[in-house]
Amino acid sequence: MNQSTTTSLPIGVLVGDGIGPEIVPAAMAVADAAARLEELTLDRVELPFGRGAIDTHGDPVPESTLRALDDLDLWVLGPHDSASYPAEHRRRTPGAVIRTRFGLFANLRPAQAFPGVRATTPDIDVLIVRENTEGLYADRNMYAGSGEFMPTPDVALAVGLITRAASERIARVACAAARDRRGHLTIVHKANVLTLTTGLFRDVCREVAAEYPDLVVDEQHVDAMAAHLVRRPGDFDVVVTENLFGDVLSDLAAELAGSLGIAASVNCSDAKVMAQAAHGAAPDIAGRGIANPVAMMLSVAMAFRRHGTIREDTAEVATGGRIEAAVADTLAASTATADLGGTASCAEFTDAVLARLADG
Ligand code: ATP
Predict the structure, then answer these.
(1) Mind listing the pLDDT tens digit for each residue in 12-24?
(2) Of 225, 231, 230, 131, residue with least CA distance to 173
(3) pTM
(4) Which ligand 1 atom is nearest residue 80's CA?
(5) I need a labelling partner for 52 at 20 to 30 A (CA). Which of 62, 126, 295, 315 fits?
(6) To which CATH superfamily is domain 1-105+263-360 assigned?
(7) CATH 3.40.718.10-classified regions of the chain
(8) Cβ-count burial 112-121 (b if 16+ within 10 Å, e if not)
(9) Ligand 1, atom 9: closest residue by C-alpha
(10) C-beta of residue 241 within 8 angstroms of C-beta of residue 129
(11) Which CATH code is given to the segment(s) 119-257?
(12) In this structure, are strands 266-268 and 106-112 parallel, antiparallel, or unpaired?
């Protein structure tokens, strides 16, 4: 990797709804501080998104925001509370609009227990690689219309979509991740029941994994996987699965590791990287200053690592590492928000991370 001469890094910032106005600025403050230590200046591009954008632009994801993102390849997406939007804005979730427009086909969701955090399964350290564009997600698996429909008021149907191309590209991301981690890939499917769809996913993953002879590859049905994650999480490293299974398993894994509030994630294509915490807008606690900013901070760190690796920018990769270390040290010192059993507010936790960064 070459030492980059870049000193200014453009980064989009989309604050979003619910706890977004609390956790996104917290994560960006930490990101700015970490970047400065690597002589990198974050050139923030703030973009309208979410409920506020409906009020100002008539759309939760205004066209002007999408056009600005065309020119960026790194951004931070806050949570959206689309269930609370007026009906005309609920057909497609804002996250799906952005993921589809920019082909962000891979959702990487790590779940790791941190020293200092009470975890149900202290030995969990898995990366769930979730296919992000297909499956049963009715708002994104059709060219026109919806994959979910009702022929009569009492009958509801959903169409699931699995393609060879999408399965292959996600399998490659998962295999590469497994090679960089502990060399173990678990393919999760439900091919005993959904034989054609998740069977195709499984078969393509097997084919791709065969190109990585250094990996240990095994398989699980999704229901068994849920049980195994609880009973013996230490046996898993990288898990590759389709969209809905990945969504459910990653929430389970996050809670096993301590809380949804520490669950980081990035959505990416081969060129673009979007940091997006795995949790939602948490409207039940929004505005109270008690949200846990860790998931957002670690998502930003992961985005820097991935984007920096794509650009071969050591300073950017190191910025991600600094954020991760400062967050981990803060948690290890038992500074934690209420979801982790602590008493720190979002602002107090953020100040503690900033202090760690200042200490170098
Ligand atoms: P979505 O479908 O948009 O992912 P969700 O229905 O899964 O959303 P969340 O918004 O993720 O729901 O919230 C689930 C629970 O986790 C809520 O009780 C919420 O308060 C809690 N939670 C989520 N994120 C955090 C956080 N950062 N800090 C503290 N608690 C959180």
Answers:
(1) 999 999 999 999 9
(2) 131
(3) 0.92
(4) 3
(5) 295
(6) Isopropylmalate Dehydrogenase (3.40.718.10)
(7) 1-105+263-360, 119-257
(8) bbbebbebeb
(9) 280
(10) yes
(11) 3.40.718.10
(12) antiparallel
